[in-house]
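Explain this fold:

***
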Amino acid sequence: MTGGNRNTSGARGALACMLLAASALSASGFPTVAWAQAEATQRTFDIPSQSLPEALILFGRQSGLQVTADADLASGRHASAVRGTMSPAEALSRLLAGTGLTFRFTGSSTVTLEPAPRSADGAVQLGPVRVEGASHGAASYSSGSIATTLTEGSQSYTAQAVEVGGKTARALREIPQSVTVMTAQRLRDQVITTTEDALRQATGVTVTDGSGYPLESFSARGFGLGVQSDGGAPGVSNFWYNTGLPDAAVLDHIEILRGSDGLFAGRGDPGGTVNMVRKRPLDHNQVSADLLAGSWNRYRGAVDVTGPIGWNGRLRGRAVAAFEDRDFFYKPSSMNKQVFYGIAEADVTATTLLTFGGSYEKRETRGAYAGTPRSVTRDDLGLSRDECLCTDWSFRDYKTSELFLRLEQKIGGDWTLKVNLTRQRQSYAYELGYPLGTVNPVTGAGPLLAGSRTDVSNLSKLADVTIDGSFRVLGLKHDLLAGINYQDMFSDGTGVSLYPTRPPADVFNFDPAGFPRPATPGSYVPLLPFGGQKQFGAYATLRSHITNSLRVTAGVRLSNYTYDYAAGRQRYEDNGVWIPYGAVSFDVSKSLTLYGSYTSIYIPQGGNLTATGAQLPPVRGNTMEIGVKGSWLDGKLNGSLAAYRIDRRNGAALDFTSPTIPGCCYVASRAIRAQGIDAELVGEILPGWEMSIGYTYNENKYRSGYGASNGAAYFPRTPRHMLKLWTMARMPGNWSALRLGGGINAQSKTYVAGSASIIDASGTITGTTPYQFTQGAYAGDTPRRGDPDRQRRDPGGAAVAARSDRARRAWISAVRTLGRAVAVPPHQQAL
C-alpha cells in the first residue's frame, strides 16, 4: 500500500513559511520592477496563430519568460499571431487577445496565466499586474528556462517540451526522431521507484537483468542506450562495472530518444539516449510523503520537501530522502537502499538562473547470485524458483555521490547561454560464492563452487556549454545552437579469486550456509588503476524555417577521444572525428508533421583488445528514420509513427578461437543491420482518461561477413514484436474521487545464443561449445510454463496500491515485465 502526495500548506510550519515569503515579496515592490523590465525590453517575436499551449512554448523561447498556468486553463484555447519587435508584456497581451485570460508576474522572469476579470457590462479585459504564489499543479509552457520541461503537477502522461535530442526545450513534434517521455504522473501512477523499472515501461526499450540485482542492461532497436542528466554531457553508467541508474525519487521525468544521438552525445549509440531530468524546486511550499509495502517484506518510504527559502522568493530549495528495505523471492537475498537529494535554485538576476545540488545513494544487497547452471544436456534443471544458488556471505554494495551545477544566462534578444557541470563518484564492491559448471541430472555432480572478490571506483567529470538563439537572413528565420562538451572518466579497481581449489557444490541440495567464507588472499590490493577515457567535442546545428511549415536542420560534431588502459600502459586516441546530422520536417496540418532524419554512428572501443593486444577500431555506421508525429487536444494527446534503418560495422565480438586466453579477447564484427517500426500514442484520450500504448517491430541481423551466420539475429534478446499498454481513468459522477488503472506488456519470443567455455575439474578452459536457450512469447509478467526463464523471474504480477491525494484515492494495477534471461554469460558457463 502506498500513501500519496499530500500538500500540507495548511500545516502550521509550512503556512508560516508561505506567509513570510509572501509578505517579504509584496514588501519588496517587485511587481513594479518586473513590469518595468518587461515593458522596457524589446524583443523580436514570430509566433503564428495556433493552439495556446504550443504558442506559449514559442513565446517562452522568444521572450525569456517562464509562463505557468493551471493544467486545464490553457487547453481548448487558440492564440492570436504575434509578429514584430515589441516588449514581452505587449507580445503576451496580443497573444492572449480573445482567449479570456490575463497574466501576472510571480517572479523576476516568471508569469502566471489566469482568467481575465470582467467589466460591469460583462466584457473581458486584461487585469492589472499582481504578485502571488503560483498555483499548485501548474504546468510550465516556457522554453526559455530549464523549468520548461518539468512535468510535475501537469497530471499528464505527455510533456509539453523535452530537451533530449536538441539541448533546448522543444515540443515533441519538433524533434525529428522517436521520443518517449515517462512523466511524473505516470511514474506515480505505476508506482515506479527505479529508473530501470521506468525503462521497462517505455516504448521500444528492452531491459535485461544481469548477474545479480540490480545490474540491468537496457537497449532499444537491438543496441545499447547512452545516458545523461538534465541534457548535459553524456555519462557512461557501465564504465567497467554497471552501478545502476538513480532512484526515481530524485527525478521529475525521463526522456528516451530512440536512434543515434551522436551529434550531442559523442557516442552515437544506435539505440539512443536516456535523459534523466532531476526534480527542481517549486515556487510554493509543498511537502509530500510516500509509503509502500509489498510482497517479500518490501517496505519503502520517501519524503519530498520544497518551496522558497529566502531572497524574496528568488532562492528556492528542495530536499528528498528515500529508504527501502526488501527481501527477494529467492532466499536468502535482501536489499537495503538509502537515497538523499538536495537542490537549490536562485534567480541571481532577472536574466540569470543558477542551479546547484547533490545526491547520495547507497544500496546493499545480501545473498547476491551470479546465475543458474543447466544440465549437461542444456536442459532446465527444474530447480525451485525461490532458491538462490548463493552463499549467505555473498554481497553486492553500491555507492553513488554526485554534485552538479547549472547556469542559464539570457543574452539579449532570445539568445541563451547554458553551462552544465557534474562530478560523480561511484564505488562498487562484491563478494560472490556460487556453483559454476553444468550438472549431471542423475548424480548431481559437475558444479564446483566459485568465489571472487571485486572492488571498483569510478570518477566522472562532465561539462557541457551551449549557446542558442535565432536570427534572420534573407527574410528567413534560423535557429542556431552551438556548444562543447567534455567527458573525463577514470576507474580504479581489481578482483581476485577466493578459491585456489574449488569444492564441489550440489545444486539439488544447496545450503547457502554450508560454505564458510574463504580468506581473501594476502596479496590482494583493493584498488589498482584500471584506466580512463576522455572525450572532447564541439557541435553546432542550424535549423532554417524555409516556410511556416518547412524546416531544414543541418548539424555537425567534431570529437577527440582518448582511452588509457592500465594506467597508461595501453593508450588509444582518435582525433578529428566528424559526425554529420541532417533532418527535414514539414507541417502538413496544424496537427501533423512529417519528418526524416539522418545521423552517423561513432562508438570508440579502446577497451576491447584482440588476442594480440591490439585495440579494436571504432564502431561506425549510420541511422536513418522517417515518420509522422501528431499533436491533438491542444497538446494533451501526442502520437508518432516511424520507420528506421540502422547499418553498423566493427562491433566487438568475443573471440573464442584465441590460442592464448580463450574467451577473453575480441574481434571486430562485420556489417549488421537493424530495421523496424515504432508507433506510440500517449496522453489524454478523453477528459480524465490518460493512456500510453506503444508498439515496436524490430529486425536485427548479421548482414555480411559472418559466413553461415549471415541472416541470423544479431541481438536476439530484443523481441521482434513488443507491445506496452498502460491506462488510468477517473470515474464519472459521484465516483470522481476514484481512479482505475491497469496495463500489460507483451512480447514475442527471444533467445540467447553463443559459445560457452568448457572447463575441466581444475578450472582450466579446454574448449568451447555452442548453446541456444529460448524464452517463449508472453504477456504480462509470467512466461509460459516450462520456459527456461521461469525459475529465476520475479512474477511481480499485479501490484495494487491505494493513494491519498487531496481526498482522492486511486486503484492501481502495475505490471512489471521483461524478466531476466537465465542463460549465464559465456565466461560463467561450463560444459
